[in-house]
Amino acid sequence: MIINHPLLGPRDAQEFTYLGDAGLMNRPYWLSETALQQFHDYLYLRKNPAGEHRELWFHEQGDRSWLVVTRNTTTHEILRVELARDVALANKAANTSQEPQQ
After folding, report:
1. What does the chain look like in DSSP terms, one character per residue?
2. Transmembrane stretches, by residue range (predicted)?
3. CB burial class (10 A; 0-12, 13-18, 19+) of residue 19?
4. Torsion, CA 53, CA 50, CA 36, CA 97, rounded to 10
5. How far apart are CA 15 and CA 67, in angstroms?
6. Which end of the chain is more exposed for a tag (fewer CB within 10 A), N or C?
7. What's the CA gap between 22 and 53, in Å, rounded?
């Protein structure tokens, strides 16, 4: 399988380590009133979808970057590759725009 790294170009998947669901980047807010239940679900409940899935991959034998790879789990076709940093910044910007202004 070839992963098209956003900075380095096409790389063999053996250079990377699969680290699970990209949803793990969205850690619950620890001061929330429902933080205990949210952390339980965050730690123990995982989806195992057939089809399009966003995954975290670490470029262990390369530049040590974190990637979010959107992959079809039934065909192994890679649909999109993004730097995890860019995804996290976009998520943070989206979340702060939804927070009430004080």
Report:
1. -EEEETTTEEEEGGG-EEEEEGGGGSPPPTTSTTHHHHHHHHHH-----SSEEEEEEE-TTTT--EEEEEEETTT--EEEEEEHHHHHHHHHHHHHHHSPP-
2. none
3. middle
4. 30
5. 12
6. C
7. 8
Q: Residue 102 has what pLDDT?
A: 53
Q: Is residue 95 over pLDDT 60?
A: yes
pLDDT, tens digit (0-9, with 9 covering 90-100), for 14-51 = 999 999 899 888 889 999 999 999 999 999 988 888 99
Q: Using alpha carbons, select from 55, 74, 50, 44 the residue that is nearest to residue 17.
A: 55
Instruction: Give the tokens for residue 36.
Output: 């205990």
Q: Are 54 and 20 in contact (CB under 8 A)?
A: no
CA-CA distance, 17 to 71, in Å (whole number)? Answer: 15
